[in-house]
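Entry:
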Amino acid sequence: MSPHPSPPLRAMERRFSSGAGPTESKSSALVMKGTIAGIFLFLLSISDPVISALETSVEDDENNSYWMDQHLSQKNSDGGARDGNQSSRLRNANKHFNTRGNNQLSTEDADDDNIHNLPNYSRIVIVGGGMAGLHTALALAERMSNPSIQNVHPPTIRKAHNKQIIKNRNAKEIIVLDASRIGNGASGRAKGLVVPGFQVPLENLQENALDADDDGAGGWTVPALVTSLSNMLGLNESLQETPQYTKAVVEQMYDLTYVAMDRLRTIVKMYGIDCDWVDSGAVEGSIHPEEDGDDEDDAEDDGCQMLTSIQVDEIMGRPSSSGSKSNLYKWGEYDPSCAGVNPLALTIGLANAVEQWGVQIYEYTKVMELEKRTISSPPQQQSEHQPSTQGKYTIVTDQGHTLHCDHIVLCTGAESLSNNISQRLSRSFTPVWTWMAATEPLRERCPLKSGVADSVLLESSYEKNNDPIKQEQRPAPMCGDDHISLNYWRNNNKDDGRLLFGSLADTYSLPKWLISWRLRNALTEIYPQLENVQFSHVWGGKLAFALNSMPLIGRDMDYDDSQDNGKADDVDNNTSFTTEGGVWYATGFAGHGIVPTALAGSLLANAILGIPNQQQWQLFQTYFPPSSWNGYPCSRMGAGMVLLVYNTW
């Protein structure tokens, strides 16, 4: 046989050597490029800028909650009355513009005495008309009227039964700007649970304290995991430089929330805010087995009572038959100090209280830019009521109006803050969606009933002490559990006996049909007997979550010329912090804001007015400052993965 291949074989060799190889290489390269491009496009499509733009363009900005339905029903039953605590009118709408499709106010709005032109100068401007902004405005107005007030309690004033407006000239130096209507944001869509403390439980904060008894015991909490990961990767230099708090610091901060809760009760009573306040107490069931650290004596020291699995089920009205769902909660705790409110009615009531002091609220006025002023107007152009400084800062609204001020307080919740307003806050938290639903009227089928908690707790007290505690029958308690998404529910304390159920934590806005399905699954896991119950309302809202899940309260030092950074050297450093101007903030309440917003308002009022020995805002500024990076531009995806992994774990 010839040692050389035949012509057909040589042709085949050429085909495989010179043709087939490069073709396969090119195909593999194209597949690789396509895969990389696909991954890039996918990440781009779920990135923060793209999702935020899509939500802005398609999002239904109206508050369609059960609370709004109740408000409108009450308003209609009053014959459309525009006065009193139930009113939600178009406040101070600049006269020249509104967002209802035309540039002319209706005859009804034009005749409203509360409509004013936006001024060119105000000493204090509060951005955000939710609970945080309104509490700040109210605390400022009260303290400016009575300088002797140096704590977080409101002044003792005579209640005006004839709704006579309280006139206070100093309070006219305060204005509130809101991008929408009062109560349209998270404050008017909340669950309405009035409870002291913060989103992070005190025991979790203590476990991560500098002087913790068991080093590293709190490392499995979400805030601790995220903060540790950021520090390990070197992604957050500001948090690495943050001094570590002690147990005494967080105990002091928690004590402040109990004082703030007393203040909130006083505000509701003093200003006659009709917000369906019920002192019902709250029950929390735990899906995790009881640990050695869950001490009943410690719970009783806090005024709480430990509950067995059977007691939790009895109070919540859960079925007692055998099965996996009936064994959902291993133990629980009852806190008698908690209450429930209609959050929309409370927000509107706070707005009315603020206006009684002469503070002006401007709805549909969105702040677009904030900058520090460098050029002063000539003295001859100043009005007689305008300070010679002409304001330290300049604000530009979406309508092109320019407003000067000496102090600005940013209380904007989860709405995105651009770098044009605050670089410090614009990347400090991640928006998280949470959802609620109201069932159809259940009447007698409603599992939460008045008096049940009393009977269970009294029986327990008798078995323990042979001496039952006598107390009045309480309404059905607020309920919740310790899922990472924090299921929470209550009845509406009305004759129709609806159940208001909230759950889920998503970093993206999802379609309502999917939300309804997921809420129903979460509800029937707790109450299998409600499997076929229909929802009459489904709504959601965005919450602002910082990396450590603690409120962001303090001063934006990027706008400050002073050498003082606003940090406390120690727990007792509450000296005066007098200033002629500043940019302040109160946000990131993480869905736990009804009481902490009242605290934030008082703390910032004391800070702005420089009240001596009342500068506890420095505790938040020092130990829980805004982070410099939240994972942008993929913060939502990262936060969603953390929630998913933790909840699955």
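The first helix runs from residue 7 to 45.
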